[in-house]
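tokens incoming
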């Protein structure tokens, strides 16, 4: 076998083997598929879903309106808190038999209400998380779709933030513009 073929095989193996290991790990623990960063349905903010023990939670990590408060919360004290940082999803448990995360809650910042909730992926599409908030039974509720934040979107955001920081550092001290 020529050197070029060995090199090609090595490159393919180095790309495919780690990907296969990730897929195998997810098959061992399919509950992890929900972890990561997700756009709000209106794409006006993001949350990050994380695991704490056997439960899953989602925390708001970005919102288009800088400095926004949780103004629609019916509790006057909570209405003063920053919207970024609140727990939007919580207490979800993965139900392997049904392939859903259930027994959780979702907080709707638009109306300040908290609902029971379950989440799932349709047809194995791990880029779109379905979340159904409801009162009482799931039949009486609304389903929203959260889209996974892509690597390209994260990289573009990181570059924009770095450029903004560099621009801010270039301003002469004492100048207010």
């Amino acid at each position: 076998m020529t050197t070029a073929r060995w090199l090609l095989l090595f490159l393919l193996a180095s790309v495919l083997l780690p990907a296969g290991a990730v897929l195998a790990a997810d098959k061992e623990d399919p509950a992890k598929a929900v972890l990561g960063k997700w756009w709000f349905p209106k794409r006006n903010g993001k949350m990050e879903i994380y695991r704490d023990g056997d439960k899953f939670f989602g925390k708001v990590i970005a919102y288009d309106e800088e400095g926004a408060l949780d103004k629609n919360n019916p509790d006057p004290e909570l209405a003063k808190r920053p919207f970024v940082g609140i727990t939007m999803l919580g207490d979800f448990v993965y139900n392997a038999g049904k392939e859903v995360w259930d027994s959780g809650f979702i907080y709707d910042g638009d109306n300040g209400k908290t609902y029971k909730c379950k989440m799932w992926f349709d047809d194995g599409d791990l880029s779109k998380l379905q979340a159904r908030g409801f009162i009482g039974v799931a039949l009486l509720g609304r389903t929203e779709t959260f889209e996974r934040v892509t690597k390209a979107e994260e990289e573009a955001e990181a570059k924009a933030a770095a450029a903004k920081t560099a621009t801010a550092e270039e301003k002469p001290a004492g100048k207010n513009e």
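note: The first strand starts at residue 36 and ends at 39.
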